[in-house]
């Protein structure tokens, strides 16, 4: 069944919002003061992001492709796998979805944001940064992490076995994200998605959160540019070898 562009854009909006609610919601649960999951640990966050990708792909994969990531949309377009005419509308829907999802996280954790005095903990529930304050490492981690994600996701969703059983493929994609957060997520978070970092960073700047600290705009280009570059190379590798 072919859906209208409006329906596809709504799916991208909702899918990206769900990604933020599960992903950054899990970070807020771990990092913010006096939550039920305070200090629950990195596996809690990895699980949140794994499910945050798995569920939208299960829900909307058959509708819009569930890119839920501007890097994935651009990578497919550059490699001839997605129409350029739909790129800008998809990215706008993804950005708005990320903004809405992050705002929901803020609203639901509002009392805990007020109680948390550590700027790093607050910032972590919005966007990424390099743990070593090394911009080169930041770029490389986001580049290679997104490359692996895109190759893995395309192998799951585009190859015949995935098309024959899209639910199974969606679950495997979720596990890829889960595994990437546990393995390559230590240096930066990770982002692997320009919308997942840019719009929450904007909200971090705008929202009146006590003790929130800097929004670190000087490094904000890295989790936007690096995932796009990594995704384009990943999609090219998929087409070349698979």
Automatic annotation (TrEMBL):
Gene Ontology MF terms: glycerol channel activity
Pfam families: MIP (PF00230)
SUPFAM superfamilies the record matches: Aquaporin-like
Location of the protein in the cell: Membrane
UniProtKB keywords: Membrane, Transmembrane, Transmembrane helix, Transport
Membrane topology value: Multi-pass membrane protein
Gene3D superfamilies: Glycerol uptake facilitator protein
InterPro entries membership: Aquaporin-like (IPR023271), MIP (IPR000425), MIP/Aquaporin (IPR050363), MIP_CS (IPR022357)
Recorded family membership: Belongs to the MIP/aquaporin (TC 1.A.8) family.
Protein name, per record: Aquaporin family protein
Organism field: Bifidobacterium vespertilionis
């Amino acid at each position: 069944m072919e859906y209208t562009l409006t329906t596809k854009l709504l799916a991208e909006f909702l899918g990206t919002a769900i990604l933020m609610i599960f992903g950054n919601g899990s970070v807020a649960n771990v990092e913010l003061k006096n939550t039920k999951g305070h200090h629950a640990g990195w596996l809690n966050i990895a699980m949140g992001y794994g499910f945050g990708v798995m569920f939208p792909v299960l829900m909307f994969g058959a509708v819009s492709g569930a890119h839920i990531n501007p890097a994935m949309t651009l990578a497919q377009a550059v490699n001839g796998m997605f129409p350029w005419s739909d790129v800008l509308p998809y990215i706008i829907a993804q950005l708005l979805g990320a903004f809405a999802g992050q705002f929901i996280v803020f609203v639901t954790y509002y009392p805990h944001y007020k109680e948390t005095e550590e700027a790093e903990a607050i910032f972590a529930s919005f966007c990424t940064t390099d743990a070593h304050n090394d911009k080169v490492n930041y770029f490389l981690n986001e580049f290679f992490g997104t490359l692996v994600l895109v190759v893995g996701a395309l192998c799951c969703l585009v190859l015949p076995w995935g098309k024959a059983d899209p639910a199974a493929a969606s679950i495997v994609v979720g596990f890829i994200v889960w595994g990437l957060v546990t393995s390559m997520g230590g240096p930066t978070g990770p982002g692997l998605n320009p919308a997942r970092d840019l719009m929450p960073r904007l909200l971090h700047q705008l929202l009146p959160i006590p003790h929130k600290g800097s929004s670190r705009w000087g490094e904000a280009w890295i989790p936007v540019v690096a995932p796009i570059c990594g995704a384009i190379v990943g999609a090219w590798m998929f087409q070349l070898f698979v």
